Amino acid sequence: MLDYQIYTLPNGIRVVHKQVLHTKIAHSGFVMDIGSRDELPEEQGLAHFWEHMAFKGTQKRKSFYILNRLEAVGGELNAYTTKEKICFYSSVLDKHFEKSFELLTDITFNSIFPEREIEKERGVILEEMSMYLDTPEEAVVDEFDAVVFEGHALGNNILGTKESVSGFQKQDFLNFISRNLSTDALVFCSVSNLPFGKVVKLAEKYLSDIPSIKKQRERVPFTGYQPKTVTLEKPISQAHCVIGCPAYALADDRRIPFFMLNNLLGGPGMNSRLNLAVREKHGLVYTIDSNYATYIDTGLLTIYFGTEKKQLKRTTALVLKELKKLREIPLGSLQLHTAKEQLMGQLAMAEESNMGLMMMLGKSILDQDRVESLNEIFDKIKSITASDLADIANDVLREENLSILNYVPS
């Protein structure tokens, strides 16, 4: 059972903590309900740029002192940006937990965005873009978002564009934060051997002076999906393909059954249907997998593979054949039992990662105002029927509902 405790400060910031007695490492971070989908059209890439700039100077620290403070005691300081979240987090020995808490608070709330640092980091991000564009297996998956979510902020690349990143100035960051930061949509999450009372005491010490900020922000829901097939020539040696479509939103009751269906189709297990059919049986790919991402108003299924250009059509046909099997052939009782056991085992092992658990706590509190225990999730998985999976496959995986993006060698 997931056993966590939660405390809400007067300013609305929530603190969620899980005590794990057998560890000496304290993982903690701020998770904010702000992401790239909250950018205005001219702000593409600004959320990710803010993630970088948080380490570049605060009201009391220059960049070197931010980067060195935890590294000097063997800790780690990092951040990430997604379509709907920004997270600043750290991992340190438990005796340095207060030091990391204070530093995370400083970079989250007191960044000053020095103009000189903006110019330097602009170059870093442009290089990050170039590196990403030289990695077609990543670029094709991200560009698929633009195919499915065309005309919507969910389709924009988190890194932004070279034009947008080249133009950002200090006031752009301040405006973005002012418009989006809300203390009741921000969580401090931690997993360590420290007692909850100690974490709360430090939260009151470092977070109580932050003023209450309440923003009524409405995210524009995605509508109007139109399936399409796009083929682009690239200076690459292998063809890369993504097949997929919108799927169920975070709060949809069909989310967990579809997650299990995706796991059966192309999850991390080497016994996934796509891996067995395309790699093991025909030897057409090195990697083939499927992924299901959820958002507050929609979801996204993506199936990725890379193959020889001359095998692209054949490989695509094999993938569509596996999808057709899921639509037309219900799982037998043994297949259904195996799929459930595999997913439950994978979820249990994922919870063994204290860092991943810490981030999941923060995200779950923001998205659902609670954290489901493994037992609750297991009960939902156990109740799934073969009929449920067939209905979902026929709802989402219809061939006429799929979009395809191909990168082919020029």
Question: What count of domains describes the coordinates?
Answer: 2
The number of helical segments is 15
Please name the CATH topology of the largest domain. Cytochrome Bc1 Complex, Chain A, domain 1
Q: Could you tell me the strand content as a percent range? A: 15-25%
**Which word captures the global form?**
globular
Order of helices and strands: EEEHHEEHHHHHEHEEHHEEHHHHHE
Low-confidence stretches: none
Overall radius of gyration: 22 Å
Protein name: Putative Zn-dependent peptidase
Family: Belongs to the peptidase M16 family.
Domain Peptidase M16 C-terminal: 168-343
GO molecular function, one term: metal ion binding
Q: Mind explaining what this structure looks like?
A:
This is Putative Zn-dependent peptidase. One of its GO terms (molecular function) is metal ion binding. It comes from Pontibacter mucosus. This protein has about 400 residues and is α+β, with helices and mostly antiparallel strands. It folds into two domains: about 5-210, Cytochrome Bc1 Complex, Chain A, domain 1 (2-Layer Sandwich); about 230-410, Cytochrome Bc1 Complex, Chain A, domain 1, CATH 3.30.830. Helix content is about 45%, strand content about 20%. It has 15 helices and eleven strands. It has helices at about 45-55, 65-70, 95-110, 115-135, 135-150, 160-165, 170-180, 195-205, 255-265, 275-280, 310-330, 335-350, 355-370, 375-380, 385-395, and strands spanning about 5-10, 15-20, 25-30, 75-80, 85-95, 185-190, 230-235, 240-245, 290-295, 300-305, 405-410. The strands form two sheets. A six-stranded mixed beta sheet has the order 1-2-6-3-5-4, with helices on both faces. Strands 7-11-8-10-9 form a five-stranded mixed beta sheet, with helices on both faces. Helix 3 runs parallel beside helix 8, helix 11 (about 310-330) packs across helix 15 (about 385-395) and helix 12 runs antiparallel to helix 14. It is globular.
